[in-house]
Amino acid sequence: MKRMIKIAAIGALVGLSANAHATINLTAETADPGSTPGVSVIALSEAASKYDVANIQVTPGQTLTNSVQNVAEGKTDIAAAPFILPFLMSKAVGPYAKLGKEAGAELTSNLAVLYSYRISVQGLYAYDSANISGWDGLDGKRIFNGPPRGAALTNARLLIKLNTGMEEGKGYTGVQVNWGQAVKTIQDGSADAFVLPQSFPDGRVTAALASGDVTIWSLPKDVYEGEAFQKIGKLPGTVPTTLKISEMGYGDGVTVVSEDDTFRGPGTVGGEIVNKSMSFDTAKALTKAFIDGLDDVYRAKAPFMANAWHGETDIAITDMCGPNPLKYHPGAVAAWEEAGYTIPECAK
Predict the structure, then answer these.
(1) Phi, psi (degrees; rounded to nearest 5) at 168
(2) What angle do CA 129, 133, 136 make, to 5 degrees?
(3) Which candidate, 9, 2, 113, places its Cα nearest to that of 59?
(4) What torsion do the CA atoms of 278, 284, 290, 293 make, to the nearest 10 degrees?
């Protein structure tokens, strides 16, 4: 309980520090403050304050499964959301199974998007000292695959099964801790390998280097191009992603294994969501602050933010439309269009 209170207090200071004159007070939840969604929501609080839109109290280190439901229930104003989560909520499956289909669908209908971005690319890495050979070397191992509840865990289990055929508890042991304990868990030997969301360069990988050299494995090319992975790539909030190894941002201490010069994996796409009850003017102003702050607030905030797809509206990148049940808030649509962007009709 003491840890939760401390985190909330830090979040409040981050959200309120830049400007005390904005008249609207909002709350926001996000993941680890060093992750893409963590940095993105904190950047929104800074942009909203810079442009005198709102004071946003940010609580980082949250499990986004819970945060999405909190926004849908009106308990929180803004949250980072992998788009797979509203989809699962709408079907009342996975972490939302206890809701029931009717309640899950109703809650999902309360949600709207301000803007989207690539949260991460899921992948495998391990310390060189663990003697892991790659995806084919996970049998019998302990694998840290995310927090106890969330999109990261769901995606990691899918990815491990795709590459190895194994399910958790039947071939490998899953290790789950909350994001706030992630770096400690990586470093303390609790797990042999890690199948986790990564940004490039990834803060958790960089922190892990204090304890030894690390190897990251790309999804094998034949798996990436195979039918099974293509089906995973059609899940809401999942976009097959490639990146040149030379553009991943790593230096000494990190080896990236691939058949060629390209890293491949499932990109997890999401965005900042709000309740549909948020006023048109507030949603528009927040989105405009985001757009205006893209270069000097967002992309400058962390090394990995420049390639996180902020500012994109192409549905091939945002993964809006299709099975994704969410649409942009009308106020957000107005802000995007006034800034000269095109929002597809299916996303309005």
Answers:
(1) -60, 130
(2) 145
(3) 9
(4) -140
Of residues 306, 308, 303, 135, the one with CA closest to residue 216: 135
207-239 residue pLDDT tens: 999 999 999 999 999 999 999 998 888 888 999
User: Of 279, 297, 282, which Cα lies nearest the Cα of 45?
Assistant: 297
- Encoding tokens for residue 182? 């992630």
Task: Identify the pLDDT of residue 28.
Answer: 98
Measured CA to CA, the distance from residue 255 to residue 258 in angstroms comes to 10
Which residue's structure tokens are 């090319």? 221
Pairwise CA distance, residues 42 & 18, whole Å? 11
CATH 3.40.190.10 intervals, the chain: 2-118+269-347, 121-267
- Cβ count near 10 (within 10 Å): 15
More confident residue, 130 or 23: 130
CA distance 97 to 169: 21
Nearest-angstrom CA–CA distance, 118 and 239 = 9
Strand 111-127, strand 262-275: pairing: antiparallel
7 pLDDT band, cuts 50/70/90, is very low
- Specify the CATH number of the domain 121-267: 3.40.190.10
The separation between the first and the last C-alpha atoms of the chain, rounded to the nearest angstrom, is 40
Q: Are 24 and 269 in contact (CB under 8 A)?
A: no
Query: Homologous superfamily of 2-118+269-347 in CATH?
Result: Periplasmic binding protein-like II (3.40.190.10)
User: Are the C-beta atoms of 331 and 282 separated by less than 8 Å?
Assistant: yes
* pTM beyond 0.85: no
> Looking at residues 130-135, what average pLDDT do you find?
95
Tell me how far apart the alpha carbons of residues 112 and 3 are, in angstroms, rounded to a whole number: 31
Closest CA relative to residue 45, chosen from 62, 61, 24, 68: 24
